[in-house]
Amino acid sequence: MENFQTSLGEPNIASILIFFAFVGVTLYITYWAAKKTKTTSEFYAADRSISGFKNGLALAGDYMSAASFLGIAGMVALKGYDGLIYSIGFLVGWPLVMFLIAEPLRNLGKFTFSDVVAFRLKQTPVRVASSVGSLMTIIFYLIAQMVGAGALIQILFGMPYEVAVIIVGFIMVAYVLFGGMLATTWVQIIKACLLLGGATILVVITLGFFNFNPITLFNTAAEKYSDAVLAPGGFVTNPWDALSLGIALILGTAGLPHILMRFFTVPDAQQARKSVFVATGFIGYFYILTFVIGFGAMVLVGTDIVSKFDKGGNMAALLLSEAVGGVWFYGFIAAVAFATILAVVAGLTLAGASTLSHDLYVNVLKKGKSTESAQVKVARISTLILGILAISLGLIFKGQNVAFTVGLAFAIAASANFPSLVLSILWKKFKTNGAVAGILTGALVATILIIFSPTVWVDIFEFESAIFPLKNPALISMPLSFLVAIVVSLLSKESQAEESFEDEKLRTFLGIGAE
After folding, report:
1. Per-residue pLDDT tens for 237-247?
2. DSSP-derived 3-state class of residue 250
3. pLDDT at 76
4. Which entry of 219, 244, 336, 494 is 20 to 30 Å from 43 by CA?
């Protein structure tokens, strides 16, 4: 597309109108949900009233972040085929969640994944350790979302970065503070429908330039930029890096607190399985769309223009929408991207508030003895604290390269949360000391290795070479966490944990006693 001129970076009336319409509708839903949110079960889990299909859409909404939509499309636009590794990595984690996690999690847990890990172990040490893993995952993910939100809104609406971060913070606090899980779920459902609808229209219009034949699109890309764009090696050149990244994306999915929390919103294990099945379908469809959008931007916009606005290519989908659909369609896609950030940040905040209030306040500080009203009050105070923290982190990290924080969030989820979750469900000899040692080892080693990796040591600290050669630490930190948890458990004595395993199995696989 010759002589393409973009209005990116200028205030767009279409974006502003559509965004305010989204905020207006979702705040009305929050007002409606607030009247139904009085107890802890209603605040944390929407009173377990969400159907499998709706929860599947909300799960898809939680997972289809702006980083996925904008980041993967941009990666494909600049690097070609290797962007597919991220798409497949994100997607492959879902069957694992469905077959291994969904049903036991729903049957064993109440509000957080710590409920599952601590089910037959000593409550205080396990909940403190698992809260460390959860909060680290949530905070690192929040940093990326808030900085991304500020930068994105600055480009899209011409609004100052600081104002954008504060607006995002206030709106997402309103969702969670007043509407709890019910409002957050509906925000995710609306956002998922908008994102899937917008991306589908973008792909259909794009393919219209190539006789609706994706093969013609890929061949045109190869003719314009060489066959290398259709071959692996453009982005991930080290096979060990690819393996480590794959472990983090696949297993990290099964350890993300805001994703795991969604399984407590459905009435039973059958609906939990159905929700993962539905989510897998929508997420798979979405990542196929991002692949076509990336190649469409490569051909119709051009890699030079895509990289001019952002060296990571994050504006590729937006530039393509303007190139093929004009200013109003670009405004619609931009508003959807903003709504996407809002919804994901709200889900993360709710998960963090649940950890602070349910795990640390109720079960550690109060030893499980707290009234309903006190628990809801503490949950709302925790939401405010996390909202202030999210805004502060967004302002502190302004202008910083925070791409590593998403990788770190997935690495900690895969290394700290996932091993303890799996061992607590499947291994009789899993003990309290093993759980604590495994979680802390995974979180600590993942954090240290990513600091020493090329992502931080070379790209941010600007040293010539990295101490740890891989960009993602999961290949080392995840197996080490499993190993430490197993060895420490075998060296520990805790007869109560082993004796309770048979009771746990009945609840895990038959749902006997599940809430």
Report:
1. 678 887 888 88
2. helix
3. 87
4. 336
What is the pLDDT, as a whole number, of residue 299? 93
Cα 479 from Cα 487, distance rounded (Å)? 12
Token pair 């019910």 is found at 182
3-state secondary structure 13-70: HHHHHHHHHHHHHHHHHHHHHHCCCCCHHHHHHHHHCCCHHHHHHHHHHHHCCHHHHH
Which pLDDT band holds residue 341 (cuts at 50, 70, 90)?
A: confident
Q: Which of 264, 260, 267, 278 is nearest to 53 (CA)?
A: 278
What is the sign of the dihedral through the CA atoms of 149, 294, 83 and 251? positive
Between CA 283 and CA 277 the distance in angstroms is 10
Structure tokens at 242: 């690819």
Count the neighbouring beta carbons within 10 Å of the beta carbon of residue 155: 20
Confidence category of residue 210, pLDDT binned at 50, 70, 90? very high
User: Residue 514 belongs to what H/E stretch?
Assistant: none
Q: CB under 8 Å to 459, separation ≥6 — which residues?
A: 401, 404
User: Within its chain, how far is the Cα of 45 from the centroid?
Assistant: 18
CA-nearest of 483, 478, 494, 486 to 432 is 494
Q: Report the percentage of the chain scoring pLDDT > 70.
A: 92
Contacts of 311 (CB under 8 A, 6+ apart): none
Closest CA to 495 of 121, 108, 127, 118: 121
Distance CA(319)–CA(9), nearest Å, equals 11
User: Residue 471 carries which side chain, given as an amino acid letter?
Assistant: K
Q: Angle, to 10 degrees, between the axis of helix 432-451 and the axis of helix 418-426? A: 160
Please enumerate in sequence order all residues whose Cβ is within 8 A of that of 373, keeping only pairs 6 or more positions apart, or say none.
none
- Reading phi first (left if > 0) and then psi (alpha if -120 to 50, else beta), residue 302 is in left
Helices (H), 80-213: 83-96, 103-108, 113-117, 123-157, 161-208
* Cβ pair 259, 90 in contact under 8 A: no
Q: What local confidence, expressed as pLDDT, does residue 403 receive? A: 62
Longest dimension (CA), the chain: 74
Instruction: Give CA–CA dist 138/92, Å, rounded.
Output: 22
Residue type, 446: A
Token pair in block for residue 321: 């929408």
Instruction: Tell whether the model's pLDDT for residue 234 goes beyond 70.
Output: no
pLDDT tens, position by position, 155-205: 777 778 888 889 888 888 888 888 888 888 998 898 899 899 999 999 999
- Check if the beta carbon of residue 324 is closer than 8 Å to that of residue 209: yes
Residue-wise pLDDT tens digits, 263-297: 889 988 888 888 988 998 998 899 889 889 999 99
Q: Report DSSP state, residue 493.
A: -
Query: Cβ(34)–Cβ(179) under 8 Å?
Result: yes
Per-residue pLDDT tens digits for 123-136: 899 999 999 989 98
